[in-house]
Each structure stands twice: as C-alpha cells, then as structure tokens.
Model the fold of this input.
Amino acid sequence: MNTSIFKILIALLFSVKLFVSCDSENTTITDTNSQNIVFTTPPFDLLGIDAKFSKDIAYDTKERTLFDIFLPSSNQPTPIVIFIHGGGFTSGSKEMIYSFEADHIRTYLSNNIAFATISYTLLDDTGETEGVLKPMNDAKRALQYIRSRAADFNIDKTKVVLTGFSAGAGTSLWIAFNDDMSDSSNADPVLRESTRVSGVAVYETQATYNIDRWISDVFVDYGITLDQVISNPSYTSSITRLYGIPTISDYNTPEVEAYKNTVDMLQLFTADDPEIWVNNVLQPVVYPSNATIMYHHAFHARELKERADIVGVANVTYYGLNPVLYADPSGESYTDFIIRKLTTN
Done:
C-alpha cells in the first residue's frame, strides 16, 4: 500500500476538520436587518456601468459574517449571483474575487444582475469543535439574509445562483443539494427564508466532505480502502482529531456517521436539485501526489457528473488536464451559464 496518499489525505482533511458537532446554526435573533445601505467607491472601475456598491454589510453578529454587494440600476427587481470564497475553510475572504473576477462582475451588472461576495467564520487552528458545518451554515445564513432584504436591495429573491471556488464551491453545492433549510417557525425572520436556488456554478470543487466517499468513490481508481486507513496506527491520532472523537473505535458511532452524512453532498444530490456547472481542469489527471491535486482533482467533478446523470439533473461539466477527460459539448462558459439561469424563464 502506498502510504503517501493517506498522509496527504489526512493532512488535507485535517485543515478542513470534519468534527462531530452538527448544530452550528446561530438561531439568535439579530438586528442586522435594521442596517442602512451605505454606498461607496467600488474596489475596481465599473467602466461606466450604472451600478452602486456597498461593503461590509453584516449578515450576523460574528466578526467575519460580512458581505459586499453590487447593485445595478434597475426599475425592476434584479436576479443575483452570490460568491463564496475558497481557502480550505481556514483562510480567504470576500475580497479575493476582485483580483480575478472583475470582468465577470461587470458582465453581470451589464446584464442587470446583482452580485454579492461573502466572508464566513473560519475553522480554528486548534480546538475546533464544530467543523465544516460552521462556515457552511454561515454561508447559508448569508443567502437567507440577502433574501430577507430583497426589497432593500431591489433583488428578485426567486432568481439566485450560488458560485464559488474550492471550499466555496463545495459549500455552494452543499446548500443547493440540501432540501429547503428554511425554518418557518424560527423566531429569527432571516432563518425563515428559503435556501433553494436557481443554479450553481463551481470551480475546482470537492464532491463531498465525507472522507469515506473520497476513498470509496472519488479515488476508487487508486485502490484505497477505508480499513487500510483506520487500521493503521500511524494515522489513528490524525483521524480522531478530524472527527473530534476520543478513540478510533468511535469512528463508526452513530454521531460520526450522522455528521458525515450531513456533509455528504453526493448523498444529498437528488432529482429536484438545480442545474450545475462544474469545472475541475487545473490539475493533471494523475495519482494525487500532493494536497493541491487531491483537493481539486478531476475525479471530484467526475463524481458530480455521474451523480447528476443518474438522478437526472442537467449539468454542464468540464474536468481533466493532460488529458481532458470530459468537456461538455455545449461549450457553455461560466458566465453564460449564470446569465442563462438568471434571465431565462
């Protein structure tokens, strides 16, 4: 057995920290809806597009739960794109997109589409007790908050596309593949809003945050088995830290199994979910000899496409580099997909 892949897997997923507490949702009623919208100079030149920009709007009371928003001038409510940044759930910010997506944002605004980019709570370097549900639930709330202020932002909350890169991509899929997570009886009006969206467009995504599925499905070509991992004393301490369990004998407890199911986007993906656009083409299609290749491997996109085809969800998928394994025959681009999903009835 080649042990290097397991070292990479554990090191990589340790940075993601799939711990066992599933209840990370903040149900405290906040007064963020009382904020006035203050417009300021955008972070890049809009090249004459008639639009306004507001930054650092709080969607919760945590330090990082902020978003920026671009609003085109319109007499009618506009659709909106919401971007979730990457960084392995341990780094990154809402501003990351401005260095490489300014042209795309201008394209949306020119097509009368609003654009928001969010930050979220990062995982703690040590002592993390909530795992990926913490940042993912923040992102869910951001979506719900923006919808709760649809009238203030002049947006059509029935026309929303989620998009993201890497961890933000996986989070977008997790939100989209869940059943509607609105809570109609919640005392917080934000959490009463729907989480269903019109489409999802993701770059360099992961197919699931269930480590079992990385071994059994995503990287099945490489012959890795779960038993080989959990029976190897060299990895015991790392695995127990990943899931916040006292010993490896707790790995298959109902609590850990429930958590893994909660963050398993592949399992959540069903026929009633929105169309997806997926692009994993930056890494070579080779044995995952380092964390970057493993985290953004073409096989993540392959698994998503296979699942989409099985359940009957339309998808535009591209994956593989040297060689390209699959390229959607439509050739539809990222921005064209988003514009189509938001402007076609």
In short: The chain has one domain: 4-225+249-343. The longest helix spans residues 133-148. The radius of gyration is 20 Å. The longest strand covers residues 155-165.
